[in-house]
Amino acid sequence: MQTVIALSVIMLFLFIGEWVSTLSKAYIPSVFVTAVLFLIGYWTIVPKNVTTTATFTPAFTTMIQAALLVHMGTLMDFKTLLHQWRAVVIALCGVAGTALLAMGGGLFSSTGRRSLPVCHR
Known about the structure:
Layout: H1 2-23, H2 30-43, H3 50-53, H4 58-74, H5 78-83, H6 85-103, H7 110-115
Helix pairs in contact: 1-2
């Protein structure tokens, strides 16, 4: 029964966040409202382990993250993406830069330079 109550509290906070965002026509973001509700809840009556009690374990969140990303990707209209090509280019540059810094970080250290292949003429 505790799992159902914990999940209900989380879903209520998410619902209120979405409701406020819809009423304000996204002027007030739903994530902000939900975060404020969790913050006030943690300070007052919501137990600190409400997310683990509602079975939001790391394995669950890892599994559901991919499904959410695919869902968000299907919400995008291809015509809108073509119309906003600059935003797409900026996002792709950000992904490429992040990948370069994350995977190529060893290139700038002495250990990373030793692991590079030596190109002789």
